[in-house]
Amino acid sequence: MQVSERFLALLEQQLAQFTDRPDLRSLVVYVALPSDSGEPSLLAIGHWPSSLALPSRRPDATPASEQDTRRWLALRDGSLLLGALRIDSQCWPWPGDFRQRLEATAQCLTEALKLDLEQQRLGRQLALRDDQLKLLVHQLRNPLAALRTFGQLLRRRLDGDSSNQDLVDNLLAEQRQLNRYVDAIDQLTQSPALPASASPLQPLLLPPALNNTRQEPLPQVLEPLLERAAATAALQQRPWHPPKGLPDLPCPAAAISEILANLLENAFRYSQAGGPIGLHCSEQSGEIQLTIWDGGPPIPAAERDTVFAKGVRGSTGQALAGSGLGLALARDLAESVGGRLELIVPASRIDPSLSEAGNGFRLTLPAAARDPAAARSN
User: Which of 70, 79, 98, 232 could in theory staple to 94 by disulfide, Cβ–Cβ 3.0 to 4.6 A?
Assistant: First the structure.
Protein backbone atom coordinates (compact mmCIF):
# COMPACT_ATOMS: atom_id res chain seq x y z
CA MET A 1 0.00 0.00 0.00
CA GLN A 2 1.37 3.39 -0.98
CA VAL A 3 0.57 6.59 0.90
CA SER A 4 0.92 10.10 -0.46
CA GLU A 5 3.61 12.63 0.36
CA ARG A 6 0.92 14.83 1.90
CA PHE A 7 -0.06 12.08 4.32
CA LEU A 8 3.59 11.50 5.29
CA ALA A 9 4.03 15.23 5.94
CA LEU A 10 0.95 15.24 8.18
CA LEU A 11 2.21 12.12 9.97
CA GLU A 12 5.58 13.76 10.66
CA GLN A 13 3.85 16.87 11.99
CA GLN A 14 1.58 14.86 14.28
CA LEU A 15 4.44 12.85 15.80
CA ALA A 16 6.70 15.88 16.24
CA GLN A 17 4.28 17.42 18.75
CA PHE A 18 5.44 14.93 21.40
CA THR A 19 8.96 16.36 21.77
CA ASP A 20 7.88 17.78 25.15
CA ARG A 21 7.41 14.28 26.64
CA PRO A 22 10.66 13.06 28.22
CA ASP A 23 8.85 9.87 29.31
CA LEU A 24 8.14 8.90 25.68
CA ARG A 25 10.78 6.71 24.02
CA SER A 26 9.32 6.30 20.52
CA LEU A 27 6.28 6.39 18.25
CA VAL A 28 5.89 4.29 15.12
CA VAL A 29 3.03 4.40 12.60
CA TYR A 30 2.13 1.33 10.51
CA VAL A 31 -0.26 0.73 7.67
CA ALA A 32 -2.07 -2.59 7.28
CA LEU A 33 -1.30 -4.72 4.24
CA PRO A 34 -3.23 -7.78 3.04
CA SER A 35 -1.46 -11.11 3.31
CA ASP A 36 -1.97 -14.62 1.98
CA SER A 37 -2.96 -15.86 5.43
CA GLY A 38 -5.84 -13.44 5.66
CA GLU A 39 -4.30 -11.70 8.66
CA PRO A 40 -3.19 -8.11 7.97
CA SER A 41 0.54 -7.43 7.96
CA LEU A 42 1.81 -4.12 9.31
CA LEU A 43 4.33 -2.01 7.40
CA ALA A 44 6.07 0.85 9.23
CA ILE A 45 5.84 4.17 7.36
CA GLY A 46 6.81 6.80 9.95
CA HIS A 47 8.42 7.21 13.35
CA TRP A 48 9.61 9.56 16.07
CA PRO A 49 12.31 10.41 17.00
CA SER A 50 14.04 10.67 13.62
CA SER A 51 17.09 8.84 14.96
CA LEU A 52 14.99 5.72 15.52
CA ALA A 53 15.68 2.82 13.17
CA LEU A 54 12.45 2.24 11.24
CA PRO A 55 11.37 -1.42 11.42
CA SER A 56 10.24 -2.91 8.12
CA ARG A 57 7.49 -4.96 9.79
CA ARG A 58 5.78 -5.22 13.11
CA PRO A 59 8.11 -7.27 15.36
CA ASP A 60 6.82 -10.73 16.14
CA ALA A 61 7.81 -10.44 19.77
CA THR A 62 8.26 -7.54 22.15
CA PRO A 63 11.43 -7.57 24.28
CA ALA A 64 10.71 -8.39 27.90
CA SER A 65 12.12 -5.05 28.99
CA GLU A 66 9.41 -3.27 26.93
CA GLN A 67 6.44 -5.53 27.50
CA ASP A 68 4.99 -3.39 30.27
CA THR A 69 5.37 -0.04 28.48
CA ARG A 70 4.70 -0.79 24.79
CA ARG A 71 1.11 -0.19 23.71
CA TRP A 72 -0.80 -0.06 20.41
CA LEU A 73 -3.64 2.14 19.19
CA ALA A 74 -5.50 0.76 16.19
CA LEU A 75 -6.31 2.96 13.18
CA ARG A 76 -9.70 1.59 12.15
CA ASP A 77 -12.44 2.42 9.69
CA GLY A 78 -15.30 0.54 11.32
CA SER A 79 -14.24 -3.10 11.37
CA LEU A 80 -11.48 -2.53 8.78
CA LEU A 81 -7.96 -2.21 10.20
CA LEU A 82 -6.10 0.53 8.32
CA GLY A 83 -2.98 0.61 10.46
CA ALA A 84 -1.67 1.11 13.99
CA LEU A 85 0.19 3.57 16.19
CA ARG A 86 2.87 1.97 18.41
CA ILE A 87 3.76 3.82 21.61
CA ASP A 88 6.85 3.04 23.70
CA SER A 89 6.91 5.04 26.91
CA GLN A 90 8.48 4.83 30.33
CA CYS A 91 5.21 4.76 32.17
CA TRP A 92 1.94 2.86 32.24
CA PRO A 93 -0.85 3.72 32.61
CA TRP A 94 -0.48 6.97 30.73
CA PRO A 95 -1.40 10.23 32.48
CA GLY A 96 -4.84 11.54 31.45
CA ASP A 97 -3.64 14.44 29.26
CA PHE A 98 -1.01 12.22 27.60
CA ARG A 99 -3.63 9.58 26.78
CA GLN A 100 -5.94 12.19 25.27
CA ARG A 101 -3.16 13.53 23.03
CA LEU A 102 -2.23 10.06 21.84
CA GLU A 103 -5.84 9.11 21.11
CA ALA A 104 -6.42 12.42 19.28
CA THR A 105 -3.31 11.77 17.17
CA ALA A 106 -4.50 8.26 16.35
CA GLN A 107 -7.91 9.61 15.35
CA CYS A 108 -6.35 12.32 13.16
CA LEU A 109 -4.11 9.78 11.42
CA THR A 110 -7.06 7.45 10.92
CA GLU A 111 -9.17 10.12 9.21
CA ALA A 112 -6.23 11.31 7.11
CA LEU A 113 -5.40 7.74 6.07
CA LYS A 114 -9.03 7.09 5.12
CA LEU A 115 -9.05 10.18 2.91
CA ASP A 116 -5.67 9.32 1.42
CA LEU A 117 -6.71 5.79 0.52
CA GLU A 118 -10.03 7.01 -0.90
CA GLN A 119 -8.24 9.59 -3.04
CA GLN A 120 -5.91 6.90 -4.37
CA ARG A 121 -8.87 4.63 -5.13
CA LEU A 122 -10.65 7.42 -7.01
CA GLY A 123 -7.46 8.29 -8.85
CA ARG A 124 -7.07 4.72 -10.06
CA GLN A 125 -10.74 4.63 -11.03
CA LEU A 126 -10.46 7.90 -12.99
CA ALA A 127 -7.28 6.72 -14.71
CA LEU A 128 -9.03 3.52 -15.78
CA ARG A 129 -12.06 5.43 -17.07
CA ASP A 130 -9.80 7.87 -18.89
CA ASP A 131 -8.01 5.00 -20.63
CA GLN A 132 -11.33 3.41 -21.56
CA LEU A 133 -12.67 6.73 -22.86
CA LYS A 134 -9.58 7.24 -25.01
CA LEU A 135 -9.99 3.74 -26.39
CA LEU A 136 -13.67 4.34 -27.22
CA VAL A 137 -12.86 7.65 -28.91
CA HIS A 138 -10.20 5.90 -30.95
CA GLN A 139 -12.59 3.13 -31.98
CA LEU A 140 -15.42 5.58 -32.79
CA ARG A 141 -13.33 7.15 -35.53
CA ASN A 142 -13.42 3.96 -37.59
CA PRO A 143 -17.22 3.68 -38.07
CA LEU A 144 -17.48 7.47 -38.49
CA ALA A 145 -14.91 7.33 -41.29
CA ALA A 146 -16.83 4.45 -42.85
CA LEU A 147 -20.09 6.44 -42.66
CA ARG A 148 -18.43 9.33 -44.46
CA THR A 149 -17.05 7.02 -47.15
CA PHE A 150 -20.37 5.25 -47.75
CA GLY A 151 -22.20 8.59 -47.74
CA GLN A 152 -19.88 10.05 -50.35
CA LEU A 153 -20.23 6.95 -52.53
CA LEU A 154 -24.02 7.10 -52.22
CA ARG A 155 -24.05 10.74 -53.19
CA ARG A 156 -22.14 9.95 -56.39
CA ARG A 157 -24.66 7.26 -57.29
CA LEU A 158 -27.50 9.75 -56.77
CA ASP A 159 -25.98 12.30 -59.12
CA GLY A 160 -28.89 14.19 -60.66
CA ASP A 161 -31.41 13.13 -57.99
CA SER A 162 -31.42 16.42 -56.10
CA SER A 163 -34.06 15.48 -53.50
CA ASN A 164 -32.19 12.37 -52.37
CA GLN A 165 -28.83 14.09 -52.67
CA ASP A 166 -30.04 16.58 -50.09
CA LEU A 167 -30.78 13.74 -47.68
CA VAL A 168 -27.27 12.37 -48.14
CA ASP A 169 -25.80 15.86 -47.70
CA ASN A 170 -27.65 16.13 -44.39
CA LEU A 171 -26.29 12.75 -43.29
CA LEU A 172 -22.76 13.87 -44.13
CA ALA A 173 -23.30 17.12 -42.23
CA GLU A 174 -24.41 15.18 -39.14
CA GLN A 175 -21.36 12.92 -39.52
CA ARG A 176 -19.10 15.98 -39.51
CA GLN A 177 -20.80 17.23 -36.36
CA LEU A 178 -20.23 13.85 -34.71
CA ASN A 179 -16.56 14.11 -35.66
CA ARG A 180 -16.37 17.50 -33.97
CA TYR A 181 -17.83 16.00 -30.78
CA VAL A 182 -15.35 13.13 -30.90
CA ASP A 183 -12.46 15.57 -31.39
CA ALA A 184 -13.69 17.61 -28.42
CA ILE A 185 -13.88 14.51 -26.23
CA ASP A 186 -10.39 13.52 -27.33
CA GLN A 187 -9.02 16.94 -26.39
CA LEU A 188 -10.86 16.82 -23.08
CA THR A 189 -9.14 13.56 -22.09
CA GLN A 190 -5.78 15.21 -22.77
CA SER A 191 -6.52 18.32 -20.70
CA PRO A 192 -5.11 18.68 -17.16
CA ALA A 193 -7.51 18.05 -14.30
CA LEU A 194 -9.36 21.01 -12.80
CA PRO A 195 -7.69 22.50 -9.72
CA ALA A 196 -9.09 21.41 -6.40
CA SER A 197 -10.28 24.95 -5.73
CA ALA A 198 -12.55 25.03 -8.80
CA SER A 199 -16.07 26.03 -7.90
CA PRO A 200 -18.70 23.29 -8.22
CA LEU A 201 -21.19 25.97 -9.25
CA GLN A 202 -19.45 26.99 -12.47
CA PRO A 203 -21.69 27.32 -15.54
CA LEU A 204 -22.36 24.15 -17.52
CA LEU A 205 -20.60 24.95 -20.80
CA LEU A 206 -19.20 23.06 -23.76
CA PRO A 207 -15.54 21.96 -23.84
CA PRO A 208 -13.25 24.68 -25.24
CA ALA A 209 -12.93 22.79 -28.53
CA LEU A 210 -16.65 23.37 -29.20
CA ASN A 211 -17.38 26.55 -27.27
CA ASN A 212 -16.08 29.16 -29.74
CA THR A 213 -17.54 32.58 -30.52
CA ARG A 214 -17.24 32.53 -34.33
CA GLN A 215 -19.94 34.70 -35.91
CA GLU A 216 -22.03 33.30 -38.79
CA PRO A 217 -25.26 34.44 -40.47
CA LEU A 218 -28.30 33.22 -38.57
CA PRO A 219 -29.93 31.46 -41.58
CA GLN A 220 -26.70 29.53 -42.19
CA VAL A 221 -26.55 28.45 -38.54
CA LEU A 222 -30.18 27.32 -38.44
CA GLU A 223 -30.39 25.59 -41.82
CA PRO A 224 -29.11 22.15 -40.67
CA LEU A 225 -31.23 22.34 -37.51
CA LEU A 226 -34.37 23.13 -39.47
CA GLU A 227 -33.75 20.26 -41.86
CA ARG A 228 -33.16 17.89 -38.94
CA ALA A 229 -36.36 19.09 -37.26
CA ALA A 230 -38.41 18.65 -40.45
CA ALA A 231 -37.09 15.09 -40.86
CA THR A 232 -37.85 14.22 -37.22
CA ALA A 233 -41.37 15.65 -37.48
CA ALA A 234 -41.99 13.61 -40.64
CA LEU A 235 -40.86 10.42 -38.88
CA GLN A 236 -43.02 11.17 -35.84
CA GLN A 237 -45.96 12.19 -38.06
CA ARG A 238 -46.49 15.52 -36.39
CA PRO A 239 -46.84 19.08 -37.76
CA TRP A 240 -43.62 21.09 -38.04
CA HIS A 241 -43.79 24.89 -38.29
CA PRO A 242 -40.52 26.48 -39.47
CA PRO A 243 -39.98 30.23 -39.11
CA LYS A 244 -41.54 32.40 -41.80
CA GLY A 245 -38.34 34.35 -42.20
CA LEU A 246 -34.89 34.72 -40.64
CA PRO A 247 -32.93 37.98 -40.51
CA ASP A 248 -29.55 37.76 -42.23
CA LEU A 249 -27.63 38.86 -39.13
CA PRO A 250 -24.47 37.44 -37.54
CA CYS A 251 -24.70 35.39 -34.36
CA PRO A 252 -22.40 33.22 -32.22
CA ALA A 253 -22.73 30.06 -34.28
CA ALA A 254 -21.57 27.38 -31.80
CA ALA A 255 -23.71 28.58 -28.91
CA ILE A 256 -26.89 29.18 -30.94
CA SER A 257 -26.60 25.82 -32.67
CA GLU A 258 -26.21 23.91 -29.39
CA ILE A 259 -28.97 25.86 -27.60
CA LEU A 260 -31.58 25.31 -30.28
CA ALA A 261 -30.51 21.71 -30.88
CA ASN A 262 -31.16 20.95 -27.21
CA LEU A 263 -34.49 22.78 -27.20
CA LEU A 264 -35.68 20.98 -30.32
CA GLU A 265 -34.58 17.60 -28.94
CA ASN A 266 -36.55 18.24 -25.74
CA ALA A 267 -39.62 19.35 -27.68
CA PHE A 268 -39.66 16.25 -29.87
CA ARG A 269 -38.96 13.94 -26.92
CA TYR A 270 -41.24 15.29 -24.21
CA SER A 271 -44.17 17.01 -25.91
CA GLN A 272 -47.43 15.24 -26.68
CA ALA A 273 -47.15 12.63 -29.45
CA GLY A 274 -48.52 13.98 -32.73
CA GLY A 275 -48.64 17.55 -31.39
CA PRO A 276 -47.21 20.51 -33.32
CA ILE A 277 -43.67 21.85 -32.86
CA GLY A 278 -42.20 24.96 -34.38
CA LEU A 279 -39.55 27.65 -34.38
CA HIS A 280 -40.77 31.24 -34.20
CA CYS A 281 -38.50 34.20 -34.94
CA SER A 282 -39.12 37.89 -34.27
CA GLU A 283 -37.18 41.12 -33.84
CA GLN A 284 -38.04 43.64 -31.14
CA SER A 285 -36.05 46.72 -30.10
CA GLY A 286 -32.85 45.46 -31.68
CA GLU A 287 -33.18 42.01 -30.16
CA ILE A 288 -33.70 38.72 -31.98
CA GLN A 289 -36.10 36.31 -30.28
CA LEU A 290 -36.00 32.64 -31.27
CA THR A 291 -38.71 30.48 -29.69
CA ILE A 292 -39.01 26.70 -29.81
CA TRP A 293 -42.64 25.94 -29.03
CA ASP A 294 -44.78 22.83 -28.75
CA GLY A 295 -48.45 21.92 -28.41
CA GLY A 296 -48.23 20.69 -24.81
CA PRO A 297 -48.67 19.45 -22.22
CA PRO A 298 -47.55 22.59 -20.35
CA ILE A 299 -44.77 22.23 -17.80
CA PRO A 300 -46.43 22.41 -14.34
CA ALA A 301 -46.22 25.82 -12.68
CA ALA A 302 -44.33 24.40 -9.67
CA GLU A 303 -41.52 23.18 -11.96
CA ARG A 304 -41.01 26.23 -14.16
CA ASP A 305 -38.41 27.86 -11.90
CA THR A 306 -36.35 24.68 -11.43
CA VAL A 307 -36.53 23.06 -14.86
CA PHE A 308 -33.31 24.85 -15.93
CA ALA A 309 -31.29 23.48 -12.98
CA LYS A 310 -28.55 20.96 -13.70
CA GLY A 311 -29.80 17.39 -13.34
CA VAL A 312 -33.45 18.39 -12.85
CA ARG A 313 -36.08 16.79 -15.08
CA GLY A 314 -39.75 17.65 -15.29
CA SER A 315 -42.39 15.24 -14.03
CA THR A 316 -43.78 14.73 -17.55
CA GLY A 317 -40.47 13.23 -18.71
CA GLN A 318 -39.56 11.02 -15.77
CA ALA A 319 -40.47 7.83 -17.63
CA LEU A 320 -38.16 8.70 -20.55
CA ALA A 321 -34.39 8.51 -20.79
CA GLY A 322 -32.52 11.73 -20.12
CA SER A 323 -29.82 13.38 -18.00
CA GLY A 324 -31.47 16.70 -17.10
CA LEU A 325 -28.53 18.63 -18.63
CA GLY A 326 -30.01 19.99 -21.87
CA LEU A 327 -31.86 23.02 -20.48
CA ALA A 328 -29.08 23.80 -17.99
CA LEU A 329 -26.52 23.82 -20.80
CA ALA A 330 -28.82 25.88 -23.03
CA ARG A 331 -29.38 28.59 -20.41
CA ASP A 332 -25.70 28.81 -19.43
CA LEU A 333 -24.67 29.03 -23.09
CA ALA A 334 -27.23 31.78 -23.68
CA GLU A 335 -25.89 33.81 -20.76
CA SER A 336 -22.28 33.20 -21.85
CA VAL A 337 -22.95 35.11 -25.10
CA GLY A 338 -24.95 37.89 -23.45
CA GLY A 339 -28.39 36.47 -24.18
CA ARG A 340 -31.09 34.91 -22.04
CA LEU A 341 -33.31 31.85 -22.18
CA GLU A 342 -36.71 31.74 -20.52
CA LEU A 343 -39.79 29.54 -20.41
CA ILE A 344 -43.06 31.13 -21.50
CA VAL A 345 -46.32 29.25 -20.82
CA PRO A 346 -48.46 29.21 -22.83
CA ALA A 347 -46.48 29.87 -25.98
CA SER A 348 -49.30 32.11 -27.27
CA ARG A 349 -48.06 34.79 -24.84
CA ILE A 350 -45.13 35.25 -27.22
CA ASP A 351 -47.31 35.42 -30.33
CA PRO A 352 -51.07 34.80 -30.65
CA SER A 353 -50.43 32.44 -33.56
CA LEU A 354 -48.58 29.96 -31.32
CA SER A 355 -50.07 27.18 -29.21
CA GLU A 356 -52.43 28.12 -26.39
CA ALA A 357 -51.67 24.89 -24.51
CA GLY A 358 -47.94 24.25 -24.85
CA ASN A 359 -44.56 25.63 -23.86
CA GLY A 360 -42.35 28.25 -25.44
CA PHE A 361 -38.62 28.37 -24.75
CA ARG A 362 -37.56 31.82 -25.88
CA LEU A 363 -33.93 32.66 -26.63
CA THR A 364 -33.28 36.40 -26.75
CA LEU A 365 -30.12 37.72 -28.38
CA PRO A 366 -29.38 41.42 -27.92
CA ALA A 367 -27.27 43.27 -30.49
CA ALA A 368 -24.15 42.93 -28.29
CA ALA A 369 -24.44 39.14 -28.38
CA ARG A 370 -24.46 39.20 -32.20
CA ASP A 371 -21.74 41.80 -32.66
CA PRO A 372 -18.44 41.40 -30.75
CA ALA A 373 -17.44 44.99 -31.63
CA ALA A 374 -20.64 46.31 -30.03
CA ALA A 375 -19.99 44.24 -26.94
CA ARG A 376 -16.44 45.67 -26.58
CA SER A 377 -17.65 49.25 -26.96
CA ASN A 378 -20.24 48.95 -24.15
Answer: 98
